[in-house]
Amino acid sequence: MNKFQTSTIISLTDKGQQLASRLIELGAAVDHLHKPKPFADEVQRHFNKGERLILICAMGIAVRTLAPVLADKYQDPAVLVLDEHGQFVIPLLSGHEGGANDWARQVANVIDAQLVITSAQTYLKPKYIAGMGCERHCPMPVLKQLLEETLLEANLTINDLSSIASIDVKQDEIGLIELAAELNLPFNTYTANTLRTVEDQLTQKSDIVFREVGCFGVAEAAALVNADRLFNGQPNNTESIKSELLIPKHKNRQATCAVARIYEN
Questions:
Q1: Which residues contact residue 41 at a Cβ distance below 8 angstroms, ignoring those fewer than 6 apart?
Q2: Tens of each residue's pLDDT in the chain, 265 residues
């Protein structure tokens, strides 16, 4: 999944080296230097070549190392700083002009890390959308219980949701309508063709569902499409801000549920 431009990862610890190997496997970079010597000279050399850098080290080390070779935000390549555990992704340099903010968002998504953007005008807030499918006449309490159980996996509650989504053949499904009304959430539905626009992001594809409704999945696809439209106005109209599947499809005997996330400025 080599979705990123050529970049170099530089690590200083054994755990950082393990994280770097994982990032390489995910396509986040093509080169990795571990404990290069002399450290500052090697980092500065790659930076001066215009390479984008992922530094897995303390923020202080990154700042002190790069300070002597900084030019300005229009010339400096993007630099990200990650902790050795891969919990946080911080765009350090060239957030806007160099694309570090968008790049950091992509890296955070693929390793499920917390994105930390300090630029005031680009502060990001996550929005969560539940996608649901169900048998005809599924009772509202059954849907609500499944929704609550699914949200627990990411330590979320119903109060974190922005909307509920499904396929258009469920637009008159009483249980879903009642659930959205009780939770005071919008209920949005989409055609099978629209849901198919995100099928490459599905964790599960069902031929049975396809034969029944014309797409390979309802819960995951509806959540992803609704998240995209909530932020972008139409599905996937930008590569830099795109919904992600936070919680894959959960199901009980009568319904399915998944949760998507997207970041809002």
A1: none
A2: 334 456 899 999 999 999 999 999 888 888 999 999 999 999 999 999 988 999 999 999 999 999 999 988 778 888 999 999 999 999 998 776 667 887 888 888 889 898 887 765 456 678 999 999 999 999 999 999 999 999 998 889 999 999 999 999 999 999 999 999 999 999 999 999 999 999 988 998 989 999 999 999 999 999 999 999 886 654 444 344 578 898 999 999 999 999 999 877 5
Report the distance separating Cα 227 and Cα 148, nearest Å: 19
Q: What single-letter DSSP state applies at residue 236?
A: T
Angle at 179 between CA 201 and CA 226, to 5 degrees: 30
Residues 106, 4: contact at Cβ < 8 Å?
yes
Domains and CATH numbers, the chain: 7-120 (3.40.50.11220), 125-264 (3.30.420.180)
Interacting residues of 17 by C-beta distance below 8 A, sequence separation 6+:
11, 32, 34
Cβ proximity of 223 and 161 under 8 Å:
no
Burial of 37 (0-12, 13-18, 19+ CB in 10 A): exposed
Report yes or no: 188 and 165 within 8 Å, Cβ to Cβ.
Answer: yes
Would you state the structure tokens that stand for residue 257, as one six-digit string?
A: 């549920």
